[in-house]
Amino acid sequence: MQQVKSETFLAGARLVDPRALPVPLRAPRRKLANYVNRVLVLHGGLIRRGAMVAMVLAAGFALYQVREPIGQLANTLGGIAQGNFAQAGLAIGEISISGQTLTAEQDIFDALGIQPHTSTLGFDVEAARQRVAELPAIESVIVRKTYPGDVDVLITEKTPVARWAVDGVTFLIDGRGEQIAETAPAYSGLPLVIGDGAADDALVMIRALNGFPLLQDGLVALSRIADRRWDLIFDTGLRVQLPEQGVAQAMARLVTYQNDYQLLDRDVSVIDLRVDSVVAVRPNKTDEDTDKS
């Protein structure tokens, strides 16, 4: 490359107005961009670290400001994720029970198995229905849930047919002889049966007795004897002994004797009808008989 001395170069030079040069001046925006690029090249690492710290601080401040709403949302989502729908606002709040008279509401509540944290979604309707159906007085039951938090229980109870006195306690029994509840004053008009095995055969005996209204006047109890036969016990203390077989026929004869001879009104303590076609009676003791004894 040939070198040119400065004197030689300047010998041909002439003054020119810079504004007339063919290359335009650098714009201020371009200058700023060049400056920023230079700063980024020289100090880029430091700037990036500072920006990261600023972002973290800003995010932390934002989270602090919304900490309560986020906490509530987290609890709700966490409850749903863990199956705790009650925490998510689906807790059972109202339980409606109808149709029961013999069954205590508390027994039904216990059988439903609903706790304060039980949710509508988590409540097993069929399992609850089966538990309620096992209560003694329940004939049938419908359990249904209505969102968001209601449970309805519709009870149909068994029909008591008699009262059964055993071991000092009087129970109501159904047609199958099953205990369904302890008796109450409202059921004092039902027939009273006593003795071992009385509950099992009560319905048959009650149906037979319903055919003889005359014998129900003053009748206080039906007594099962040795789980084989029945005695009729009246409020006068009279005991009518019925046979094992042919009970209806024996009661028909007793009605005839009452109509013809007022046998039930006689001063007797026992009328024995256990032998067909034979009526044996035991008179009450008189004062004279007491003195002789």
**Overall pLDDT, averaged?**
82
Structural class: alpha/beta
Give the SSE string: HHHHEHHEEEEEEHEEEHEEH
Number of helices: 9
What is the end-to-end distance?
Answer: 169 Å
Report the helical percentage: 25-40%
The profile of the biggest β sheet is:
9 strands, mixed
What is the strand and helix layout of this fold?
Layout: H1 6-11, H2 28-65, H3 67-81, H4 86-90, E1 94-98, H5 105-112, H6 125-133, E2 138-146, E3 150-157, E4 162-166, E5 169-173, E6 179-182, E7 192-194, H7 198-209, E8 219-225, E9 229-234, E10 239-241, H8 247-261, E11 268-272, E12 280-283, H9 287-292
Parallel strand pairs: 1-3, 4-7, 7-8, 10-11
Antiparallel strand pairs: 2-3, 4-5, 5-6, 8-9, 9-10, 11-12
Helix pairs in contact: 5-6
In short, what is this structure?
The chain is of the alpha/beta class and 293 residues long. The chain has helices spanning 6-11, 28-65, 67-81, 86-90, 105-112, 125-133, 198-209, 247-261, 287-292, and strands at residues 94-98, 138-146, 150-157, 162-166, 169-173, 179-182, 192-194, 219-225, 229-234, 239-241, 268-272, 280-283.
Write up what this structure looks like.
This protein is α/β, with parallel strands linked by helices. The chain has nine helices and twelve strands. Strands 6-5-4-7-8-9-10-11-12 form a nine-stranded mixed sheet, covered by helices on one side. Strands 1-3-2 form a three-stranded mixed sheet. A hairpin with a 5-residue loop joins strand 5 (169-173) and strand 6. Helix 5 crosses helix 6 (125-133). The longest helix is centred in the first third of the chain and has 38 residues, at 28-65.
